[in-house]
């Protein structure tokens, strides 16, 4: 048996006994369903769906209609259990805690058959004191309740007034009352995603045992003192002191590259204790600041903190510290009413260009480090500098933010509330408060996060009356809104993190929203704050339809994913635009029609005699349409940076909806592969459906290999608009794609994400251009 045991750095200098140990409970657990008819092994971290799949008890959940076929999984109540031996003599430990970094979501926890606690929030970290129940041989059980059933119960119990929406639109085929449970909101379905409200232990689980005292957390914030022109570091360490007497000692903080070392004397009284340290970096030392991608380096400094405490107890921690300032500037603009809304990083105004991030999979155990790295590397390769972690998903894993720090990606971090009103009864608020306090602590040391935002679109939902609330009832909901986002979340942010701004919602009017009592008459105003803008009816080639807003934090158009992506989750009878499958996967009302309508404004719609050809061509055309629309709109926002026209403009951010997909279905997701900092542009003299003289282009490619990169030497027999290169399911990135080929030859590079060969690429290679349809 492999012993998952880490003796922490806290060692007694003289004796042989460790002062703290961490024993991992990751790995194999047993899982069983409510009536005991199904028993199977399951991995932790993991979830029920993944366990069932790994045991061959279900197919791929994303295959065809399996989101509906497997609804029973989320409606059942599952139990996770494990037996294990405690590796050391229990009597040696003053305190033993069970630590759960993430439980999804509603569970009762039994340790040696004693109930030790409950969980109701997948975004919270739980610590339960098991000192009095732990034995040499132990059993642990997490009895889950279906989050769907729990949400229904909670909503039913909320009798004073309804908290809408009750259910998602029918087209989403989702579950109801997600706003009553602190779980990934899109796991009950979204307009681009399936309903898989799974259950499980989705993060680390371990036992921590210690004597004397234990360091629970350690966070830090670099703060720039403008008047003194120097950097300081505010460090906070939270201890659990189990010794009956005060514990004294010294702390030594060192950042060698900044020639900084400081020593502090501390004395910790018994109980939960917070130590606050203030480290000054001499202004004679040059501190290199952290910059967003494209604006400078992402310099970070290694820091160590050593606590030398009574009884020879030494605790050492290390971290990377980055120095940067961020300001949200809301000031009058000459020639335009309202206020600006832009970010200054290290004192410099920066245009935020990027996209919106959603969870990368319905089942987080499938989101690997490699996947995160590939996606985030693609973000910087495409010259973006910002991602918004959208409020309907999850607070991402640590690695996501570490990569954003490293790559220079600024993060707009929503709190996880989206497109709904929320209850504010005490139980709900307590759970949210614990979640928010924990997430601030976990995330605040990351320089990449430049703003906290209270929610996604809830101010708009309330003020634009999405849920048809009568005028007389509205004050109840406004009160709830202010209670949740202002009196609780904002208050916790202000107390816990002074190093970045907070806004209550997105979209919001910023300072104007505050002035109007935290809810604006029109949160989507072009004169204040940020806007979300969607218009599927107007012609997207006409830039006049776009808002000249201060900041566009969401906008976009749907497309279908490539045929090679769909092929894996469908069967032959699904391969037409009007198939049951094509309707089923579309979760946005009227989405398929809207795409064809928008494409039809400028392109001839495919009508081959071969139905499969028509399907593939239609998919291709929706992608061309999406690329053109997003390009036109993005370029409009970039242009609006330096203009005030009709009293509107000075746009300082464009984040399109959305970067990534959760499953293989139509959505707003796209990732453009372009290495140039600005686009090579062209002007079409007419819509392409009216173009004359286009003839079928025969495009060939000679593929060669140069190290890890593959070179595609293309040759065309005619002018070819929107040349799309496809290598099927081989993951990787082309240096350019979807381009206009006016020259006879062109060289494109392919960067594979996994090892592949020239012959594999040759076999999978497929090229399409608009002339194939015409
Ligand atoms: C906005 C987002 C998402 C949604 C998208 C597309 O409302 O915040 O809720 O998926 O538009 O409809």
Report on the architecture of this protein.
21% of the residues lie in helices and 31% in strands. It has 774 residues and is an alpha+beta fold. The chain has four domains: 187 residues, Jelly Rolls (Sandwich); 98 residues, Immunoglobulin-like (Sandwich); 327 residues, Glycosidases (TIM Barrel), CATH 3.20.20.80; 79 residues, Sandwich (Immunoglobulin-like). The structure holds beta-D-mannopyranose (BMA). Beta-D-mannopyranose binds next to loops.
Explain briefly what this protein structure is.
Helices cover 21% and strands 31% of the residues.
The CATH topology of the largest domain turns out to be TIM Barrel
Lateral arrangement of strands in the main beta sheet: 5-4-6-12-9-10
Round the Cα radius of gyration to an integer and report it.
28 Å
CATH class of the largest domain: Alpha Beta
Report the biggest beta sheet as strand number plus sense, adding barrel if it closes. 6 strands, antiparallel
* Class by SSE composition: alpha+beta
Distance between the termini: 65 Å
Function: Exoglycosidase that cleaves the single beta-linked mannose residue from the non-reducing end of all N-linked glycoprotein oligosaccharides.
Signal peptide: 1-19
Domain Beta-mannosidase Ig-fold: 695-773
Domain Glycoside hydrolase family 2 catalytic: 343-503
